[in-house]
Amino acid sequence: MTVAPSQAERVRCPLCGADVDVFMNDSILEADIVTTCAACGHDALYVQKDFNRWVGIAIVGIGIALSVFFFARREPVLAMAALGATAVVDFCVYFLVGEVTVCYSCHAIHRGFRRNPEHEPFDLKKLERFGGRAARKKL
User: Fold this and answer.
1) pLDDT in tens, 32-58
2) How far is Cα 16 from Cα 109, in angstroms, rounded to an integer?
3) With 0-12 CB in 10 A as exposed, 13-18 as middle and 19+ as buried, what is 26?
4) Nearest to 57 by CA among 80, 90, 84
5) What is d(CA 53, CA 56) in angstroms, rounded to the nearest whole number?
6) Are 38 and 25 in contact (CB under 8 A)?
7) What pLDDT, on a 0 to 100 scale, did the predictor assign at position 69?
8) What does the alpha-carbon distance between residue 93 and residue 12 come to, in Å, rounded to a whole number?
């Protein structure tokens, strides 16, 4: 579910019609920086690239498959070129894709905000402490 920043404390889910609590603070509303999760109010957040993991795995898989195909045909130069092209695509995607802020506790994704310098990349120890391996909520 997508929620625009506002002073509202509850919003109606457009999918199921349920009223959902939101936790907007002055940082989100005025500075456009996430300091606490808008979905659960938790303050343990991390940043990650805003890219679909399955698409990334598909790109790498295609590169590997092409490389294996060319190796099987005894064309090692083309095989290495396929792997090199995969690396170039990955490199370009890494720098073109923006970042999102994610909550360790409820896994809510916050898009369209400026990066908070206090938030670091994902840390497995923090995930185990705050959210474990609980399923991602569909927001």
Assistant:
1) 788 888 777 888 889 999 898 899 999
2) 19
3) exposed
4) 90
5) 5
6) no
7) 96
8) 35
